[in-house]
Design goal:
The structure holds three protein chains of three kinds.
Chain A: H1 2-29, H2 34-39, H3 45-54, H4 61-73, H5 87-122, H6 127-141, H7 144-158, H8 172-175, H9 185-192, H10 195-233, H11 235-242, H12 247-285, H13 290-299, H14 303-331, H15 333-336
Helix pairs in contact in A: 1-4, 1-14, 5-6, 5-10, 5-12, 6-10, 7-10, 7-12, 9-10, 10-12, 12-13, 12-14, 13-14
Chain B: H1 2-6, H2 17-23, H3 25-42, H4 44-47, H5 82-89, H6 93-118, H7 120-134, H8 138-148, H9 153-180, H10 183-190, H11 195-231, H12 243-250, H13 259-286
Helix pairs in contact in B: 2-3, 3-13, 5-13, 6-7, 6-9, 6-11, 7-9, 8-9, 9-11, 11-12, 11-13, 12-13
Chain C: H1 17-21, E1 40-45, H2 63-69, E2 74-77, E3 82-85, E4 88-93, E5 99-104, H3 118-131, E6 142-149, E7 152-157, H4 163-166, H5 186-191, E8 201-206, E9 212-218, E10 233-238, H6 242-251, E11 256-257, H7 262-268, E12 274-289, H8 299-308, H9 311-317, E13 322-324, H10 347-356, E14 366-373, H11 377-391, E15 395-402, H12 404-411, E16 422-427, H13 435-442, H14 458-473, H15 475-492, E17 495-508, E18 511-512, E19 530-531
Parallel strand pairs in C: 1-10, 1-11, 14-15, 14-16
Antiparallel strand pairs in C: 2-3, 4-5, 5-7, 6-7, 8-9, 9-10, 11-17, 12-16, 12-17, 13-17, 18-19
Classes of the chains: A mainly alpha, B mainly alpha, C alpha+beta.
Chain lengths: 338, 294, 533
């Protein structure tokens, strides 16, 4: 096990290093002349030379990469052009809101997706299976930004239900001020027992979380269905069945357990995917997370901020993958041998 | 994309297509819808009621009109016919998806074959590179590339293609490695058959089936990614009748003029559903492990 | 530094100036400390508020907050078209217009706790002039400032100028505590997010880049006092998307919304619980034509472009958000004239002119680049409409949305070939005077700054140089001069004056006491509106 862990961690570190190099390429190489794009389209030659020097672009490429690495490792992720703040501190400010949103969306996806997948797999080919499969296809085919707008139209404009913007009603800051520990409003409200803010926060969370959940629901439903159908066909499950265990037990106890492994893996991956999806959704809902930060950065052509968000989510993705692999290896010793 | 990474199976010839369609009518639905989109794209000038509105045009006194018999999907902020633009939109993001997948295959397949067939250092280096690319959600990496390029349909295509090739490298590498290990290929190698011949005669044909399945599944993902980039202002620019761009431009009006957002968005959804169903269906047919046979 | 053009300012909200200076006597000098009601004013705006914090150099969106934290010596009153007392109680000028004496209000406290004196007024304006950033140019006529007594400030001028009007400027005219930072560097202290004004509201909390960006609270020692009829707190929240802003208003989270689309705004008209206002502003949209290089260097081509635009169509497409303008000076401001040779939509005329230059449907195609400020939906729409209009004349326009800094640096490019052909941007005056358009946009500049037509006309330059001196002594003659200058410009057409924006805003009907003050774009004077009901 130790050997496996060491190998897996080393691989993850290697990938993160590669990710840093790739973001370096995006920030410094793809734009052609990064000094020009940094300084604006038409600056004087002297100004350009100064910017080039400030950015270290007059150094040999390996040294530039070295410096970039040192900066990233040392917490210097550059300065955002549109907020004029260090990118890393911006990200730390913004991340909790997005993580809260995506976590709730993933919970929704699990609570909805797993039962749907099981129902679908239990009676394959029936009408219920057909409906669920179509729903799952709709989920993974849904343009998130469009769903966000349509849900707003329905729930707010037409039905006058559910708030549509922000994390909670800012006027409550005066009547029921919230002490922030985690910067996740729901968590902080729970910790401090601030029920008024909690209610407002949950109401604000529903629509954006539903939108973010649409893709994971589709993916998880399909994964559970496929994986259960696979498992039910495997030898040991047939054996269990042959031994006369009741069908419910065969299905629930054996097939479901065995098919959860791929589901755990997919959840971690979809989590990172959903973080990227917040780029399309948060701005619509005025949600103060990474997504609206990225959307603002994009419209301000704020390369350091865009690259920072990219790097951040990629690292989250790698770390989640690593965690999943280690958990799975712990649960299923066979994996360690691969 | 993700789930497919988990669900890539072996190959089997196209045999029981008819049977599969009967078992899974969704393939037929997906195929019909996909065909419809292709037909609409080709025949756009004939299908559109106001073909002149697809690109540069403005009718300032007819802006933001509600759907009517004259303008089936209403008009936009410049007075252009939304129906005609949605129809012409079938030529934009589906074409982007087609080009992305062609480029990704052209880059990904040779690299995959090289890695799988030759193995060793080439394999290690290529696989670590793909590891890095696959450490980003596709949308995110494409977005980062697109953000540093000048926004245009061409650069969107490039940005997504840059993101997509590693999937094919991985897929083909797996196939190539398994084929390369088989006895008849080993034998051919031992007999001094040139690499090129082995590649084209044995390895490539064996890799085609899973590739077709993957590509058909990826059409939706690419269309969604391209639309998302357009929505963020990093894709095609006005007056291109791109669906994502139309949703983005209609955003300010959607509560008062719902048609600006609803129709182009529905077109994206429909297209994505069509190719997802088709891809699913093809996978069911070509990869029998997925066929619901109980 | 952001220039004023960077403001995607579309809606001005300016209120009840009268109340600040009038005799609503109960409000005056009530015991300090008892702030106001418990009400909160939540002003929803489209873009980040505090771009800069320095009251001397701020020249961007921050004025919407600064005008609540800081005050000027005077404030413009749109009803009387004169200025009213604010931190100065009265003033007079010498007969030659070269010496202006202001009497400073007594008993005014800064938020830092110090009492304001004439020395502070001098120190504030001296600092603004010395830093010479933002709109500091407004103090150009000033030779020296003296504070002979604690309540008297004397301005000595190089040439006659309307000092009372200049002192009311929306930028660069704030009075502040120059000692606020103690031993530290004052500029750095400001930029760290501090203020040192005398205004009714003081800084409570600043959350840079967040949706609820800025919180102000009533300043208990405000010189005009609190009587319980005011908002106790003032929040600035940032919502770029008009639809979301409208929804926040509907749900009651926002009190006043700076800007939405005309369509959304209409949904609040005649709706219970909401009030809407629409007033023409002084914010004009200009299409600056490149007179120095490219096809538009030819005056015939510029006139052709001006005749090719369907102005009425443009107004229709803007659905009440804009009004066509005669000349360059907007109505409501002195110097405006309705009798000017304005361009009209005449495609045949445009074709004839283009033919002379070898272009047009029967000539060679023309390619033009048009830039507008990214994110401004109106400018984008106008650019698209112009593209469609000009396409009919075999002119292909590349419409490019750029972030303002990029748009501006392209326009200022040292190589004329790199500059755009048409640039869309807004202009509005820094104080209630037409001078700003002429000195900034049309006076010859050795290096382009805001003259983004690169226009140079020595005869016009001479008139611009003289007009303010004339204005200080003979307003009627100055009006005639401005009319003549506008006629010259319309003949040379360095810029097409497209329209003035109509500020359409919606608010909770509980907000009482609104008056539009076009001299302070986007500003809602929190002290002057009251929570009712």
């Amino acid at each position: 096990m130790t050997k496996y862990v060491a190998r897996r961690v080393a691989l993850a570190i290697l990938v993160v290093a590669g990710v840093v190099v790739l973001t370096f390429v995006i920030a410094r190489v793809v734009p052609g002349d990064p000094a020009a794009s940094w300084a604006g389209p038409h600056v004087s030659r002297a100004e350009l030379a100064r910017v080039r020097h400030d950015l270290g672009l007059d150094l040999p490429l390996p040294e530039q990469i070295g410096r970039y690495f040192a900066g990233v490792a040392g917490g210097d992720w550059g300065t955002s052009i549109h907020t004029h703040q260090p990118v890393l501190s911006d990200l730390m400010d913004r991340a909790p809101a997005s993580i809260e949103l995506v976590t709730v969306a993933m919970l929704i996806a699990l609570v909805v997706g797993i039962p749907l997948g099981l129902i679908s797999a239990k009676w394959p080919g029936r009408a219920s299976d057909g409906i669920i499969r179509v729903a799952a296809v709709l989920g993974v085919s849904m343009p998130a930004f469009w769903l966000a707008l349509i849900l707003q139209l329905l729930f707010f404009q037409r039905l006058h239900l559910l708030p549509v913007a922000g994390q909670y009603d800012p006027n409550l800051d005066y009547t029921h001020p919230l002490t922030q520990y985690t910067r996740m409003v729901v968590v902080d409200a729970l910790i401090t027992g601030n029920w008024i803010v909690l209610r407002s926060a949950i109401a604000h969370l529903i629509l954006p979380a539903l939108v973010i959940a649409s893709y994971p629901v589709g993916v998880i439903t399909r994964m559970v269905r496929a994986s259960v159908l696979d498992t039910v066909g495997e030898d040991h499950v047939r054996m269990v069945r042959a031994l006369g265990f009741p069908e419910r037990s065969v299905f629930g106890r054996f097939a479901l357990k065995l098919s959860l492994n791929p589901v755990i893996a997919v959840v971690a991956l979809v989590f990172a995917y959903s973080l990227a999806n917040t780029f399309l959704v948060e701005a619509v809902f005025d949600w103060p997370g990474l997504g609206s930060y990225a959307a603002n950065a994009i419209s301000a052509l704020d390369t350091p901020a865009i690259v920072g968000v990219t790097l951040f989510i990629a690292v989250v993705y790698v770390v989640l993958n690593l965690a999943v692999d280690l958990v799975q290896a712990y649960l299923d010793p066979r994996i360690r041998l691969r | 994309m993700i789930e497919d990474a988990f669900a890539r199976g072996g190959t089997r010839p196209l045999a029981q297509a008819g049977l599969a369609i009967r078992r899974n009518p969704l393939i037929a639905v997906g195929g019909a819808l996909a065909l419809l989109i292709v037909v609409v794209a080709i025949l756009a000038p004939a299908i559109a009621t106001h073909p002149g509105d697809a690109y540069t045009a403005a009718h300032p006194t007819q802006t933001l009109l509600a759907p009517s018999s004259e303008h089936w999907f209403g008009t936009d902020q410049l007075g252009r016919d939304v129906y005609s633009r949605v129809v012409y939109g079938a030529r934009v993001s589906p074409l982007i998806a087609f080009l992305v997948l062609v480029i990704a295959c052209l880059v990904g397949i040779p690299l995959g074959i090289a890695a799988g067939y030759f193995g060793g250092v080439i394999d290690d280096v290529l696989m670590r590179i793909t590891d890095v690319f696959l450490a980003f959600p596709a949308l995110l990496l494409a977005l980062a590339f697109a953000a540093v390029l000048k926004p245009s349909a061409g650069n969107t295509t490039l940005a997504i293609a840059l993101t997509w090739w590693p999937w094919y490298t991985r897929l083909i590498r797996g196939q190539a490695a398994s084929v390369a290990g088989r006895q008849y290929v080993e034998a051919a190698k031992a007999l001094g058959v040139p690499h090129r011949r082995i590649l084209f005669k044995h390895i490539l044909p064996n890799s085609i089936t899973p590739l077709i399945v993957q590509v058909s599944l990826d059409v939706s993902a690419v269309i969604l990614t391209a639309s998302a980039l357009s929505f963020l202002g990093l894709g095609a620019q006005d007056p291109t009748p791109d669906w994502g761009l139309m949703v983005s431009q209609g955003q300010s009006y959607f509560t008062t003029q719902w048609w600006l957002v609803t129709f182009p968005g529905a077109a994206i959804l429909l297209t994505a559903v069509a190719f997802n169903l088709l891809g699913d269906g093809l996978r069911d047919v070509l990869d029998p492990r997925r066929v619901p046979n109980r | 530094m952001f220039a004023k053009g960077s403001r995607i300012a579309t809606v001005v909200m300016v209120l009840a100036v009268a109340a600040a200076c009038s005799g609503t006597s109960t409000a005056k000098n009530s015991p300090s400390g008892s702030a106001a009601s418990n009400a909160t004013l939540n002003y929803n705006v489209t873009s980040q508020v505090m771009i800069g914090w320095d009251p001397s150099t701020g020249y961007s969106n921050e004025i919407i907050a600064m005008n609540n934290m800081y005050e000027q010596l005077t404030r413009y009153n749109p009803d009387t078209k004169q200025v009213d007392p604010l931190l100065a109680t009265k003033w007079e000028s010498s007969a030659d217009g070269l010496t202006w004496t202001f009497t400073i209000r007594s008993g005014v406290r800064f938020h830092t706790g110090r009492t304001m004196t004439a020395d502070d007024v001098k120190a504030s304006i001296d600092r603004t002039m010395q830093l010479n950033g933002g709109a500091a140019y407004i103090w150009g006529p000033v030779k020296s400032i003296d504070a002979p007594s604690a309540d008297t400030v004397v301005f000595t001028l190089k040439y006659p100028s309307p000092m009372d009007l200049i002192a009311s400027a929306d930028y660069a005219a704030y009075i502040f505590d120059t000692k606020a930072a103690g031993n530290q560097d004052l500029a750095k202290w400001f930029e760290a997010g501090h203020e040192a004004g005398t205004g009714p509201y003081q800084l409570d909390q600043w959350n840079k880049g967040q949706e609820t960006e800025l919180r102000l609270k009533a300043f208990p020692d405000y010189w005009d006092g609190w009587n319980g009829s005011h908002y106790a707190r003032y929040i600035f929240s940032v919502t770029p998307e008009a639809t979301t802003a409208a929804q926040l208003l509907r749900s009651g989270q926002a009190t006043i919304v700076e800007r939405m689309t005309p369509q959304l705004w209409q949904t609040f008209q005649n709706q219970d619980g909401f009030t809407t206002t629409d007033d023409a502003s002084w914010q004009t949209l200009l299409a600056m034509l490149n007179t120095s290089s490219g096809p538009l260097a030819d005056v015939n081509v510029r006139q052709a472009v001006a005749s090719a635009i369907d102005y009425q169509g443009m107004m229709a497409a803007l659905h009440g958000g804009a009004e066509q303008i005669s000349g360059y000076v907007p109505p409501g401001l002195w110097g405006h004239s309705d009798n000017l040779p304005n361009p009209t939509y005449d495609v045949q005329h445009a074709q004839d002119l283009l033919q002379k230059a070898g272009y047009g449907p029967s000539g060679k195609p023309m390619d033009l680049t048009l830039t507008y400020t990214q994110g401004d939906a109106d400018e984008q729409l106008v650019g698209q409409l112009m593209k469609a209009d000009l396409a009919k004349l075999n002119i292909n326009v590349d419409v490019r949305g750029l972030a303002w800094p990029a748009q501006w640096s392209m326009a200022k490019s040292s190589n004329p070939a790199d500059r755009q052909d048409i640039l869309l941007f807004y202009w509005w005056p820094d104080y209630a005077d037409p001078y700003s358009w002429f000195i900034n946009l049309f006076h010859t500049e050795p290096k382009p700054f805001f003259n983004l037509s690169y226009y140079s006309n020595p005869q016009l330059d001479k008139m611009i140089d003289d007009v303010e001196t004339v204005a200080a002594t003979n307003r009627d003659q100055a009006v005639g001069d401005y009319q003549q200058m506008q006629t010259m410009l319309l003949q040379d057409m360095p810029a097409i004056s497209l329209y003035t924006q109509v500020y359409q805003k919606a608010m909770q009907s509980s907000v009482g006491g609104f008056i539009e003050n076009p001299a302070y774009p986007n500003v809602v004077f929190g002290y002057d509106v009251q929570p009712t009901g």
